[in-house]
Design a protein that fits this description.
heterodimer, A: mainly alpha, 0% strand, globular, B: alpha/beta, Glutaredoxin, two-stranded antiparallel sheet, 6 helices, 17% strand
Chain lengths: 184, 211
């Protein structure tokens, strides 16, 4: 049984994340096309249409999470699927050894905070997938009080900050890995 | 009792959020630091022997009286890093442990030799003892320094297996010494050469494809 508060925290957190990600990709379409090209997982002719579809799907998913349309299970499975595709694309490129391009997943996208690919990003996506799928578990019935909403806000704030910190640390680690190996 | 739990929860949430903020700020600072510390190699003087030139083999006695050969083709198939230091140079003192640690990391292909000059043998012996340099040859030779035209310390010269000078320069940090080894491995003498070589066509091709 999942407490409704946890369900709410996950859905609002994922909702905000997808909305931000979609907005970011829409606002800098050229950069997103470069990123898609760099992944080299879809044919070049499909890059342009894909770069338009992905942000729309992300915004739709974000809206669905925020407005609580997750009961049907479609939102959760679709989100997990999309995140899974990202994780697979990152994994394929790590396997190929092509890691030195911006992953397009750090909400920055500007040249000064590029985030290179790393295994950590795959794990990050797996954690997000687990969170999305957790909402499929049966939820307990409990009325949420004022205190619960305060907890919700605090938890979301802490999650957002830690998500940002984790992203930054992954970026730092990738940058440090470009240094000479074996520095004790 | 219930009040106490509520209060404790509020305080804990505040602490959690502040801590998360601190972690984020710290991570950000590390990232910024990494960007600010731009890659820079050893400062290479234009005077003295050029990179690629064959160095002259010199047999010099070290401070313990053993003969050490510096320069020329190496007998044991190792590269030689000659570190010019002096007891009177403060930066040298902090760089010696760095050089030793690097020599340990690269010990399967790199010999480390310390070089200095001056006539006060006791001073050098005390200095070597102080910095724990027993494992490495420490030679005193004015001629060696002259042949590389060493004007500022700490200075390092990397001599390849075949006896040619691979790289040289004024070294102040570990990154500087590493840049000498990097220069040998890649065959690219300076950062300026590398930037000119690698960057422009990559950026260009990606931007072109996307537009």
């Amino acid at each position: 049984m999942l407490d409704p508060l946890i369900l709410k925290a996950i859905s609002i957190g994922l909702g905000l994340m997808f909305l931000l990600a979609g907005y970011h990709k829409l606002s800098d379409g050229a950069q997103f096309r470069i990123t898609l090209l760099e992944y080299q997982v879809i044919p070049e002719s499909l890059v342009s249409p894909t770069s338009r579809i992905i942000p729309i799907v992300e915004i739709l998913l974000g809206g669905a999470w925020l407005f609580g349309w997750y009961q049907a299970g479609l939102t959760a499975t679709a989100s997990a699927g999309l995140l899974g595709i990202y994780a697979l694309a990152i994994f394929i490129n790590i396997y190929r050894g092509r890691v030195h391009f911006d992953c397009g997943c750090g909400f920055g996208g500007k040249a000064e905070n590029e985030q290179y690919l790393s295994g950590g990003l795959v794990i990050r996506n797996l954690v997000l997938i687990a969170a999305a799928l957790a909402t499929l578990l049966p939820a307990a019935n409990r009325n949420l009080g004022v205190g619960d909403y305060l907890t919700l806000i605090a938890a979301l704030l802490a999650m957002a900050l830690l998500f940002g910190a984790a992203n930054q640390l992954l970026a730092n680690r990738a940058a440090i890995n470009t240094w000479r190996k074996g520095n004790g | 009792m219930a009040d106490a739990v509520v209060v404790s929860n509020v305080i804990l949430w505040i602490v959690v959020i502040v801590l998360a903020l601190v972690v984020l700020a710290l991570a950000r600072q590390v990232g910024i630091l990494h960007e600010r510390v731009a890659p820079a190699g050893a400062l290479m003087p234009t005077s003295g022997p050029k990179v690629g030139e064959l160095t002259e083999a010199m047999s010099i006695a070290d401070i313990n009286g053993r003969a050490v050969t510096v320069g020329g083709p190496s007998a044991d198939g190792m590269n030689t890093l000659v570190m010019f230091i002096s007891p009177t140079c403060p930066v040298c003192k902090s760089l010696v442990p760095t050089a030793k640690s690097l020599a340990t990391t690269e010990k399967n292909r790199l010999n480390l030799v310390f070089a200095s000059d001056g006539d006060k043998l006791e001073q050098h012996q005390a200095y070597a003892k102080d910095l724990d340099l027993d494992k490495y040859p420490y030679v005193l030779s004015e001629k060696l320094g002259m042949s590389f035209e060493v004007s500022k310390l700490p200075f390092a010269a990397l001599i390849g297996v075949d006896g040619t000078l691979q790289s040289k320069g004024l070294v102040n940090t570990r990154e500087h010494i590493e840049s000498l080894i990097e220069a040998m491995d890649t065959g690219i003498a300076t950062l300026q050469d590398y930037v000119g070589l690698a960057q422009p066509d990559y950026e260009h091709s990606v931007k072109e494809k996307a537009s």
